[in-house]
Design goal:
The protein is an alpha/beta fold. The chain has a domain of about 200 residues: Rossmann fold (3-Layer(aba) Sandwich). The protein is built from 10 helices and 13 strands. The strands form 4 sheets. A 7-stranded parallel sheet has the order 3-2-1-4-5-6-11, with helices on both faces. The protein has a two-stranded parallel sheet with strand order 7-10. Helix 3 packs parallel to helix 4, helix 4 runs parallel beside helix 5 and helix 6 packs parallel to helix 8. The longest helix has 20 residues. It is globular, with a radius of gyration of 19 Å. It starts with 9 loop residues before the first strand and ends with a helix.
Length: about 325
Amino acid sequence: MNNRLIKDKHIVVVGGAGFIGSHLVDRLLTEGAAKVIIIDNLFTGNMDHLHDAMASGRCVMFKDDAESFHLINYIFSEFSIDFVFNLATKALNYSFINPADAFATNVTVVLNLLEMLRLGKYKSLCHFSTSEVYGTAVYEPMDEAHPKNPTTTYAAGKAAADLAVESYVNMFDVDAIIVRPFNNYGPRQNYLPPLAGIIPITAMRILKGDSPEIHGSGLQSRDFIYVLDTVDAVIKVFEVLAKGETVNLSTGNQINMKDLLNQIVNFYHYEGEIVQKPERGADVFTHNCSNEKVSKIINYQLTPFETGLASTLEWYQNNIK
């Protein structure tokens, strides 16, 4: 049995001011973590997400870049750390703007953290991968054995990071696991272009009086998971998953972008134009996840998509100024 209980532990969250990371920080505090050390360069992170967490008195914030080995080495020398959750990345859309940097961030951060793990500076690493490493589905539903076929430098960097984690486990017998969420959505997801996903950017456009957009046929599908379900599953998986193992996390609710856009439009009672845009290069066409593995190892709780989407769109309505 892995000794990875959260209560009373000192935990580092890299990317902890981001969308998923900030929800994870909140949950770690709820689970009784003694201290949460957050590292985030605020590339897309936002200190507003951490308002309640910082008020707890149990968080330390480093507004800095985890790509710096000197920073990582300093933090692990100054604090006694038990566990690390690595969510550091730069959004998929960013890889079309600066492809080399998007790749490098995904690889450099995890190598820094793996070196600290190899040197015995902490006990266990939970690394966040992405469904993008799979590319378009070769078969459905997509399980953990699905071939990796990244179509962007973002996805290629994430796939390389996964391989780095697996190789360190094999070479040095360190304790590290990989969680692979499919498409997360929910409150706090970045809605500012050019790095926003379809749900937040469509909400933002409608709420600001602009026209929503659809790219290509709109038949591209994604398997969405509500962010709080991801965090709940990660906490449970972290306690029991064997080192070196990977687990997919999603809902099994495959929906195409055209239908998704219509749900958002209907929620906001929007009756204006929907702008047709060209298909984006390297766009993954089909994602449909198998949750068989995760369902066998934890009590896997999922929010119905309609419920989660309504909660998310209400959040944007209240928070987009």
